[in-house]
Write a structure and sequence with these properties.
Layout: H1 2-12, H2 27-41, H3 53-79, E1 83-90, H4 94-103, E2 107-108, E3 115-117, E4 122-128, H5 139-146, H6 177-207, E5 210-212, H7 219-236, H8 240-244, H9 251-254, H10 264-273, H11 300-305, E6 309-316, H12 318-325, E7 329-336, H13 340-378
Antiparallel strand pairs: 1-7, 2-7, 3-5, 4-6
Length: 379
């Protein structure tokens, strides 16, 4: 009986209630709660006075907000927004300049000398029609036409200045080719000589002028620029200089062509007419296969308008040009999003912000709290 009573008493003790839906906090939840709790208690501005601990925590939160916000803006600016970088190379050599020019299309290299004489880096010359260097304008040919006649100046003998006392010419009419040829060929040689003198004087005058440019030019740019300048110079050489020298040229000569002098048969026939000579001369015809801007049918007048010039040649010494220009520096730009230098600058800025906000934030919070207390007191 006693055992039964005791058993009944034990069974009567109530068992504790256990809710099957209740779960223990997860690791993430506990970690989040710990972080929140740590942040709320975080104090980066601890002082000796414990009564200001709550204000110090407010200062800490304000500091973290400002520092995080500005740092985030700087990071976005550094890694997202493109930046224009400027690089300067001091006193570049020619090889360095050409390498930089190859790598960067927009290269700025100011010259230390912006004014350079053309003669220091350019050379201009011209080639003339073959007749000006042929036998037909030579002293030997003129003497061959004169033969054994005595003329101190064959140019004065033009048919209109016929010397009637010269019995050796009495067999020929004043308008005969054998009479006129002396003065005409002499005059042709003088036209060639005068043309060359005019051109050479113009070249000398041109090369004493200066080429003005503020910054270094590439080989191609300089070549193109000089070609344009030389072409303009060529067109400005005045033919009126011939008239200023008072050359009273013969219309018959300038309206003539040189067709016959390209032909050996025609040339032999001319020489056969000159029968008063006591000596012969082996004359070379003009070379019809030689490249020329003038055709055999071009009149001497047309060639004279161009001063008998076949072509212009200009040589540019680019090394000398660069030596005279001698850029003090070269500068170029490029765009980048981020680089090692950008990260270095960012680190420096963040460090500066950290120091600045540590000094400014306590002052700002104290001012804010002070104004808040005044407002509360007024209420």
């Amino acid at each position: 009986m006693k055992k039964l009573t005791r058993r009944q008493t034990i069974d009567a003790i109530p068992t504790p209630y256990i809710d099957s839906n209740e779960q223990k906090p997860t690791v993430v939840t506990r970690l989040r709660l710990n972080l929140v709790n740590w942040f709320l208690k975080l104090n980066l501005f601890k002082g000796e006075d414990r009564s200001n601990e709550q204000n110090e925590r407010w200062i800490t939160r304000c500091y973290l907000f400002l520092f995080s916000l500005t740092s985030l803006i700087l990071i976005i600016y550094t890694f997202v927004i493109e930046q224009t970088m400027i690089v300067t190379v001091s006193k570049p050599t020619l090889k360095q300049y050409e390498y930089l020019l190859e790598q960067h299309k927009q290269l700025y290299c100011p010259c230390t000398r912006i004014s350079i004489q053309y003669t220091e880096f350019t050379q201009i010359n011209s080639s003339y029609h073959e007749v000006c260097s042929s036998d037909f304008t030579s002293t030997q040919w003129i003497q061959y036409l004169i033969g054994d006649r005595n003329y101190s100046n064959p140019y004065l003998f033009s048919g209109l200045h016929f010397d009637s006392d010269n019995h050796q010419m009495s067999n020929y009419d004043q308008l005969d080719f054998r009479t006129l040829s002396i003065s005409q060929f002499y005059f042709l040689s003088q036209l060639c000589q005068l043309s060359q003198e005019i051109v050479q004087d113009a070249i000398t005058e041109f090369q004493q002028q200066t080429f003005i440019n503020s910054q270094a030019m590439s080989r191609l740019s300089l070549k193109t620029e000089l070609h344009s300048i030389v072409e303009k110079f060529r067109l400005q050489i005045p033919l009126k200089n011939v008239k200023r020298n008072r050359i009273n040229y013969c219309q018959a000569l300038i309206q003539s062509t040189l067709e016959c002098f390209y032909n050996r048969t025609c040339l032999d026939q001319i020489q056969s007419y000159i029968d008063y000579n006591q000596f012969s001369l082996n004359v070379t015809p003009l070379n019809i296969s030689k490249l020329s801007r003038y055709s055999p049918k071009t009149s001497i007048e047309e060639m004279l308008k161009d001063l008998f010039i076949e072509e212009w040649n200009s040589l540019t010494d680019y090394d000398q040009y660069y030596k005279q220009c001698q850029p003090s520096y070269c500068q170029y730009q490029y765009v980048e999003q981020y680089s090692v230098s950008s990260i270095t600058k960012l680190t420096g800025l963040v460090s500066g912000l950290n120091l600045g906000f540590r000094l400014i934030t306590p002052v700002l919070v104290k001012i804010f709290l002070f104004t808040s207390e005044i407002d509360d007191a007024n209420l």
